[in-house]
């Protein structure tokens, strides 16, 4: 590969990165509120009043419940999502700090949070971005703090489609401009190599409809910073 090819590949990845981040603002203009999400996993690990970051808080499904028990901040790249989240929490008589920020460049000091929630976020990043995001999120986590992770697994029925540019294994580009990556457990272990694994499991649900099996696959993990 000559120097021209190198610049071409770098420009292509920069453009793709910009596009797949910007796509979320448009996506949240039509995403519907799915109701509050359970937070049992956090309650078994974190004391009431703990400082928690919801990294990629979206329209506030977890944030609205977390703020009932913890000192919680929600960050998201989409300002549209944050506005929806604020309105939703306000209707429930709740308040949380919302901040427009990228998990690749966090505006927090080191060892700020007792817990970090990152659900359904890292699956929408390229490999180098995922590694940087975990490094950033680990940096702001206190020693002994917990990192809660969830993302698509490779056995999911949706794993497939148009390959991403630049190409990465099990990574696809949807028409909405958003990137979808499907993890293996081995990949998750490597991504969180600097943290202690507390739990790491496959969550697989299957439905049989007219003789066809439809499978949903998530990989869920809880990690602790030494």
Automatic annotation (TrEMBL):
Highest taxon of the lineage: Archaea
SUPFAM superfamilies xrefs: S-adenosyl-L-methionine-dependent methyltransferases (SSF53335)
Gene3D superfamilies: Vaccinia Virus protein VP39
CDD domains for this protein: AdoMet_MTases
Molecular function terms from GO: S-adenosylmethionine-dependent methyltransferase activity; tRNA methyltransferase activity
BP GO annotations: methylation; tRNA modification
Keyword Methyltransferase: yes
Coiled coil: none
Domain Methyltransferase type: 53-149
Keywords linked to the UniProt accession: Methyltransferase, Transferase
Keyword Methyltransferase recorded: yes
Name of the protein in its database record: LysM protein
Protein species of origin: Methanosarcina barkeri 3
Classification lineage: Archaea, Methanobacteriati, Methanobacteriota, Stenosarchaea group, Methanomicrobia
């Amino acid at each position: 590969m000559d120097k021209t090819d190198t610049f071409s590949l770098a420009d292509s990845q920069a453009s793709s990165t910009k596009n797949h981040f910007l796509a979320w603002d448009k996506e949240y203009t039509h995403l519907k509120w799915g109701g509050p999400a359970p937070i049992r996993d956090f309650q078994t690990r974190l004391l009431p009043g703990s400082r928690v970051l919801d990294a990629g808080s979206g329209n506030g499904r977890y944030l609205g419940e977390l703020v009932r028990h913890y000192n919680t901040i929600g960050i998201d790249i989409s300002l549209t999502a944050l506005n929806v989240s604020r309105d939703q929490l306000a209707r429930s008589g709740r308040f949380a700090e919302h901040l427009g920020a990228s998990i690749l460049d966090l505006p927090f000091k080191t060892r700020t949070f007792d817990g970090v929630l990152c659900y359904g976020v890292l699956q929408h990043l390229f490999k180098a971005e995922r590694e940087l995001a975990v490094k950033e999120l680990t940096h702001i986590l206190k020693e002994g703090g917990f990192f809660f992770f969830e993302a698509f697994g490779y056995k999911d029925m949706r794993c497939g489609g148009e390959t991403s540019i630049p190409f990465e294994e099990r990574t696809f580009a949807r028409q909405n401009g958003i990137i979808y990556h499907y993890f293996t457990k081995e990949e998750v272990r490597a991504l969180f190599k600097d943290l202690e694994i507390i739990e790491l499991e496959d969550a697989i649900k299957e439905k049989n409809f007219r003789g066809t099996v439809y499978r949903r696959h998530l990989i869920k993990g809880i990690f602790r910073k030494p």
